[in-house]
Amino acid sequence: MEKRSPLGTALLLTIVWCCTLQGVIAQDYTTSWGAVHVDTRWFGRTDVMQAAACAGNTAVLRTDGTIDVVGSTLNDVCDVPPLPAGTTYTSVGLTRRRGAAMRSDGVLVGWGDSTWPDPTLPSGTTFVQIRGGYDHFLGVRSDGVVVAWGSTTFVPSFVWQVPVVQVAAGNAHSLARRSDGSVIGWGTLPVPPLPNGVSYVDIAAGYGHSLFLRSDQQIVTLGDNSFGQCNVPQLPAGVGYARVWAGAFFSIALRTDGQVVAWGDDRLGQCHLPTLPPGVTFVQFEPGYLQACALRSDGQISLWAGNQNADANIPEPPAGVHYVDFSTKGFTFLGLRSDGAIVHFGERGLGNMNLVPPLPVGLAYTAAWAGVNHCLARRTDGSLVAWGTNTYGQCNVLALPAGTTYVAAAAGDGFSLALRSDGTIVGWGNNTSGVFSPPALPAGVTYEQLVVGQDHALALRSDGEVVAWGDGSSGETQVPALPPGLSYARIAAGQRHSVVWRTDGRVLAFGESFYGQLNVPGVPIGTSNTEIAAEGAYSVVAHSDGSAAGWGSNLYGQRTVPPLPAGLGYGMLRAGVGTVLARVRPVGSHVRLGTGCAGSLPVTLLVPRDVPRIGETWRLGLVNLPSSMAFLVHGWSTTTSPNGPLPLDLTAAGMPGCYQRVDVQAVSVVIGTAGFATFDLSIPAWPGLLGLQLHQQAVVPDAGAGNPLGAVMSEATTATVGN
């Protein structure tokens, strides 16, 4: 069991506050890798120049000439090729399996599924317009020629004597509007004839329907009407239509009075247009397959509907609100916002998992736990709510005994488990695997953390032990025994494997190993493991230098961690079966800068529970303490000290073979038990501390050290404060 010592903290903080560093907090963001890609850096940006949307993805072209894509990573549609120096992207289009864009140097760039080759442009020509359909692209060249490429495409043998000003691509049909108001169509749908004196001024193509806006401000439709997407709303007297757009099975139009209307498929809210801030208007729509997006007059983009593949990104919160946490399981994601609301994105599963229960007046959500087909959330009154599939009663939350609240929960495969404030665990739903029977607790011990796999559960006890129960047929409930002086501090569970984090920083995995779930990778030299997460048949871990690593199944690329630019690091890992969500922040780190000397025990280790960040409490564990206490030294320098250059040989001080590696600026007395202790440092939320370096080394009393002083030195480390 841990003993925490805050002694010396006040002295150290006095030094910190005197520091003259002036840092600037770089904005942190949440992103993902694996089956879907999301990025909160889209929030609030006013630099969107163009957008494109198709089945599973949404792309934006920004005013700096870069392209970002969110949504499904299948076929690598999110992997936009980097730009050569001095070039920008000038247009973008998407199909469900491929992206295409023009560069400023006249090169057509394609990425994603390479089944169909991109066309070759004649010398001196470029594409001035690119539109993507379901499985094919249309491009208007600068010489007025229309080109189609992709699946089963063709362009009629036609002399384009009149310039083409607009193209539209559906599933199996294409449209081209010319400057004289005529429209040429090919594929499965014809073009309706025009009355005398009337021309076409706008066109749109959905999956199987077309919209034609005429110069008399009327809309003509053709094709599939299975969702009413061809049923144009009636207009008030004196009002006409001014623009048209088509999603897969829904339609959008702008009226001449400025009102925007949508009709057709509304199963995912495609026809419920988002509310705009005062004074802001929609200027362009880009409906996708099931999602929709719109460019606004303030340069921002609004995305809505769809989102089963995160094709509409993480839903953007209102101004002044941010996300404080996420939860994921399977392909379902929940985001907890700072205003106490919970939003859903990703796979909806069964039972309308996207329909988060409304909150009673005066209450807010404080935590959320996503499941495969049901979800759980805790409210500020300590109550728990559940929604989604209820086949086994997994949403029938048990009533609380008087005087207790729920403090944590987990959603399993047809069951729910919850941790109450009295330290006990209860369950409801499907109990086939015996998950409702956690091991009995010793007197005075409670449960503190809870996670579930498919049919098993793990819990961390207040004495630092981990217990596991339920289906253990793959070994997922066989918790490794703890060495003396150590305890467990973090737990995670995959489908049929379990992961635990010990206070010496070591990560252990047990259970099924078919996909390499037990092959825990080594840490980068000089670092420690700080976070763990697991789902499905894989796990991920964060290191104290801000890096991360994964192991196990890589079916969706979920263990292939993207590299980050220098100065940024990963944290707050949340693992779904095919996707990892992570927060990216200015890197806080804790790395080893020199070894110590051993006495009656191995060298004392300084193991961080996490990396130091402004506004948070940083915890440092001291492992291998012969007398369960130490003098933790803090300093600014590792090169000089009043006694001479560092490292300093301590033979003359009675510790032969030991070296002082840190200048002494402050000392904290750290007291623990059973050879282990922790030191807590509350770091103020002051931007000036960002990037501050603190060096640590401990003088460790050891009567059995065999030297005149009866002490040894721990390893030395450097902690860098992050955001």
Structure keywords:
single chain; mainly beta; 723 residues; disordered N terminus
Structure characterization notes:
The protein is mainly beta. Helix content is 1%, strand content 43%. It has one helix and 57 strands. A hairpin with a 4-residue loop joins strand 20 and strand 21.
Strand tally: 57
- Low confidence ranges: 1-25
* Proportion of helical residues: under 10%
- Helix count equals 1
Please provide a brief summary of the model.
The protein has 723 residues and is mainly beta. It contains one helix and 57 strands.
Walk me through the topology.
Layout: E1 4-5, H1 9-18, E2 29-34, E3 36-37, E4 48-54, E5 57-62, E6 67-72, E7 89-94, E8 98-103, E9 108-112, E10 127-132, E11 136-141, E12 146-150, E13 164-169, E14 173-178, E15 183-187, E16 200-205, E17 209-214, E18 219-223, E19 241-246, E20 250-255, E21 260-264, E22 282-287, E23 291-296, E24 301-305, E25 323-329, E26 332-337, E27 342-346, E28 365-369, E29 374-379, E30 384-388, E31 406-411, E32 415-420, E33 425-429, E34 447-452, E35 456-461, E36 466-470, E37 488-493, E38 497-502, E39 507-511, E40 529-535, E41 538-543, E42 548-552, E43 568-575, E44 579-586, E45 589-594, E46 605-608, E47 617-623, E48 629-635, E49 640-641, E50 644-645, E51 648-649, E52 659-660, E53 666-671, E54 676-682, E55 693-701, E56 711-713, E57 716-720
Parallel strand pairs: 1-54
Antiparallel strand pairs: 2-44, 3-6, 4-5, 5-6, 7-8, 8-9, 10-11, 11-12, 13-14, 14-15, 16-17, 17-18, 19-20, 20-21, 22-23, 23-24, 25-26, 26-27, 28-29, 29-30, 31-32, 32-33, 34-35, 35-36, 37-38, 38-39, 40-41, 41-42, 43-44, 45-57, 46-47, 47-54, 48-53, 48-55, 49-50, 51-52, 55-56, 55-57
